[in-house]
Amino acid sequence: MPDKVETSEQRPETAAVSQTGEMAIELIGINKHFGPVHANKDINLKIRRGTVHGIVGENGAGKTTLMSILYGFYTADSGEIKVNGKTAVINDSRHALQLGIGMVHQHFMLVENFTVLENVILGVEDSARLRPSLDRARGELKRLAEEYELNVDPDALIEDLSVGQEQRVEILKALYRGADILILDEPTGVLTPAEADHLFRVLETLRAEGKTIVLITHKLREIMAITDDVSVMRRGEMVATLSTAKTNPEEIAELMVGRRVLLRVEKGEANPGEVRLQVRDLVVKDEFGVERVKGVSFDVRAGEIVGIAGVDGNGQSQLLEAITGMNRPTQGEVWVNGKQITFTGDDGAAVFRRAGVAHVPEDRQEQGLVVQFQQWENAVLGYQDDPRYGTGVFLSLDECKKEAQAHVEKFDVRPPNINLKTSSFSGGNQQKIVLAREMSRDPDVLVVGQPTRGVDIGAIEFIHNQIIAMRDAGKAILLVSVELDEVRSLSDRLLVMFDGHIVGEADPATATEGELGLLMAGVNDKKDAAE
Amino acid sequence: MSARKPLPRWADLVLVPALNLILAFVVSGLVVLMIGENPIEAMEIMLFGAFGYGEGVGYTLHFATNFVFAGLAFSIASHAGMFNIGAEGQAYVAGLGAIMVGLALDQTHWLLVMPLAMIGAGIIGGFWGFVPGYLAAKRGSHVVITTIMFNFIAATLMVYLLNRVLKPEGQMAPESETVEVAGRIPQLRQFWDYFGFAPVNMMFFVAIAALIFAYILIWRTDLGYRIRTLGLNSQAAHYAGVSNSRIMMIAMTISGAMAGMIAVNEVLGVQSRLVLDFVFGYGFTGIAVGLMGRNHPIGVALAAILFGALYQGGQELAFMMPGITREMILVIQALVILFTGAMEGLFRTPLEIMFTRISSSRQSTGAAEQATE
């Protein structure tokens, strides 16, 4: 891995720092129960000062619970917390902040229509008058920006910032409050690769300044790239703490899941048949009227997976919406099985489903599921018209439940309880519920957006295998993912999207990461020649 | 991330409303105490007035009938994510449908008049709900604003119609002609003198049917599935191929038609003619009924009986206790609405914290697993 070299060069000096310092955090015998679930079992963890410490584990392994105990959201049933060698009782986040512990949450806690500056001082104003606090914060932000490469316009409104910039504001907030120990919960889940790289540079600077960073993630790549130590959690237990330099992704994955995991997807040769999905000169605008897809054409054949790679926000979402009937293209045509699909009302998704297009949406909680529904109710979402679930006005609950039961068994949804509220399932299992529903329909075309976003490793393997199985069953599959590794390993053909255009096609087996990266960044020979 | 877990179902459905109600009565009791009357005695009078004798029961059921229709009107729209506070106006204009059928078919039989009046009132009430629904679906107008305005339009329209169009010549009061024969929906006292002079009529049974209808509609039909999907997650509904705009209009129309049943009950069941302001606030109280009943037909039925008892017991109290005026009764009713409707969430947060603390093996494993993430 090329980025590993870069960080290992820096490791000797950081190791020197950490040898001098003692432990920033020590957790001794932490236990936490939620009802019958033992979320944290006798956890012991030592985090060296001045290091980046990764905590990995599948969803539900107890990482976030452990960090929430440290940050004062929960109190442990038993056990001891030591911060900088002193025993501490942390009852709320204010207390944690006093001890120098700051947290950057997965979902940002910012006031959208406040400026950066106002967000930073929120809760730590010096006096009733805001002006002195704002002035002090402005100076402090300028210093932090220079020191850590955390540049954000202090007067910009949060709603105008990109996700990466919002995250910078969160980090600034923590630093402004004097945090010495920074906990980041899945920080790169929402970032583009470039923004993630920038974040890592910031983290490295912070480490060099002697700050301690706890990084919760399930991306092994990030663990290998940035951390000094890594702790692995599985089912509420701390199964190992390793020095990153002395381990490898395979070992960590095995520890996380408790069995050997194939990080690469095993698949045979594609056997493309006739064209199932044709997209011609598609132009799509988003809800603000901005053109996001600017004339895209491609075909997907039966029995092949066509991947669309690209940095998030280059029109992939709008493309997906247009070829699944959720948004009407302003120009261009979509053909399924040789028939052009058009619609007039706002129920285009139903029209496309009837034409044989199944859709696993990018955002399962916002689109793919009604999380308040019981699992069985979600098992028919989008197929409520199907005569199988009752003709006429009535919905046959028995048939719905039968279908849901079949999904649960076939896709190993856990817990296998179709009457459970959907929000009670973990992210990976929610995704399985969506995939089971869309794949069980025997569609001709399967459109999949971000199939493994927020899904743990064990489930990723399963989901990838299911997608391959669909391909081998002769379905035409369009896959959109911002995880470059994922599109590369799954796709038979790879299209790269940049700024609403398809800027290139690559063979995923031979294209290098560098070539793809250039395409994703919009650097293209042909395009440059044209300009 | 929240450290709290949602309440168990039984607590959500029973404990929270019960606590709200107790608090409402405690505060009401203090008010009664303040004006120098005995709250225990007042409570006894109210209870006896509402349930103690046949006529009282009859009135309670009559009011409850209106509240069932109003509560269901609110709930059905609410399941689609629409806050319909226009049941008052929808019921008011629906009176036109009821009286027109009643007058036109006065010489036939009530068995013919009643269903046709329901259809007539349903169409006009439904239309009064459809227009805000249409404006919300196609123009993005907020139903709270439009339904409030439609209440005002209904009120002025009805004043105009009653004065200029429906009032028979040579009559002073702004009222329509009176139905005499088939237009009068039989009151239950005609068959069972237990009810004294109470106006509870055949529409009481329609209210029971409406509760069953609402349950089946919301939880057993394709349309209900779409309505709930839209109400809980409009993006998911769009993804599922539901025409959100259509469902909005349909839900508002059904809601308005349901409110229209109040008109049949009042106009043909009690007044036998169309009078000014016959809706008498039932539509507004329906919001509290729907909220307190958690938008579920069983809850709506229970809440409707509670409010029916409050209305009837309150009238009895004003009559029996000279210190307590009609206005005081309104204060007590308002307190109940305040605590059960507007401040419905008052006890929820503390209860959630309490239940999380003592959370035990009752919690399903899945729910707890979620909490660990």
Descriptive notes:
- The complex is a heterodimer of chains A (531) and B (373).
- Chain A has helices spanning 2-20, 63-70, 93-98, 116-121, 130-148, 163-176, 193-208, 220-226, 249-257, 316-322, 348-354, 364-368, 375-378, 397-410, 427-439, 457-472, 484-490, 513-520, 525-530; strands at residues 23-34, 37-48, 52-57, 78-83, 86-88, 101-104, 181-185, 212-216, 229-234, 237-243, 275-285, 291-301, 304-309, 331-336, 339-340, 357-360, 445-449, 476-480, 493-498, 501-506.
- With 531 residues, chain A is of the alpha/beta class.
- Chain A has three domains: 1-100 and 182-197 and 211-255, P-loop containing nucleotide triphosphate hydrolases (Rossmann fold, 3-Layer(aba) Sandwich), CATH 3.40.50.300; 108-179, no CATH class; 275-365 and 443-530, 3-Layer(aba) Sandwich (Rossmann fold).
- In chain A, the strands form four sheets. In chain A, strands 6-7-8-3-9-10 form a six-stranded mixed beta sheet, sandwiched between helices. Chain A has a six-stranded mixed beta sheet with strand order 16-17-18-13-19-20, sandwiched between helices. A four-stranded antiparallel beta sheet of chain A has the order 2-1-4-5, with helices on one face.
- In chain A, strand 14 and strand 15 form a beta hairpin.
- In chain A, helix 14 (397-410) crosses helix 15 (427-439).
- The longest helix of chain A has 19 residues, at 2-20.
- Chain A is globular, with a radius of gyration of 25 Å.
- Mean pLDDT of chain A is 85; it is low at 1-20 and 526-531.
- With 373 residues, chain B is mainly α.
- Chain B has two domains: 1-37 and 321-355, no CATH class; 53-305, ABC transporter involved in vitamin B12 uptake, BtuC.
- Chain B has 15 helices and no strands.
- Chain B has helices at residues 9-34, 39-52, 54-79, 87-104, 110-139, 143-166, 203-220, 222-232, 234-239, 244-271, 282-292, 297-320, 326-342, 348-357, 365-371.
- The longest helix of chain B has 30 residues, at 110-139.
- Chain B starts with 8 loop residues before the first helix and ends with a helix.
